[in-house]
Amino acid sequence: DLHYLTFIMDMHSRNQYLKKVRIEYLRTKSKMGKGRLLDEAGKRTGMNRKYIIRKLRPLSNLDKIKPRHRRRKEVYDGYVSAALLRCWEIFDYPCPQRLKPILRKEVQ
Fold first, then answer.
1. pLDDT band at 90, cuts 50/70/90?
2. For the chain, how big is the Rg over CA atoms in Å?
3. Which of 22, 27, 33, 17 has the alpha carbon at shortest distance from 57?
4. For residue 2, what pLDDT is reported?
């Protein structure tokens, strides 16, 4: 059953399949040929026909590369964060807004 196949395909697999279909879709000139390709892609992926048409455009989101997330710069090195963690444990795990004034009071 074809509906069984649609649940097996994950997003990555569908996008790979649609990239291959797009090459043929863009080469095809006739409406009937494009219609057959859309029907087949709809059966295999379980996606809506209009959504497939948008995916098969020359500059669609199939070509986008996910941006790499940048990590925040480390403010404290390992020694400071270990000491801060120990202070946090001593003061019974307060939230940062409460820990800051406690630390100021204790350090003075």
1. very high
2. 27
3. 22
4. 53
pTM of the model: 0.53
What is the DSSP code (8-state) at residue 94?
Answer: -
The two structure tokens encoding residue 24:
């043929």
SS3 93: coil
Which of 83, 23, 87, 32 lies closest to 58 in space, CA to CA?
A: 23
Give the pair of three-digit tokens for residue 57: 């455009």
Structural contact between residues 56 and 20, judged by C-beta atoms closer than 8 angstroms? no
Q: Is 99 exposed, middle or buried (0-12, 13-18, 19+ CB in 10 A)?
A: middle
pLDDT tens for 16-50 read: 999 999 999 999 999 999 999 999 999 998 899 99
Query: Could you tell me the two tokens for 48?
Result: 């809506």
Which pair of structure tokens corresponds to residue 14?
């569908």
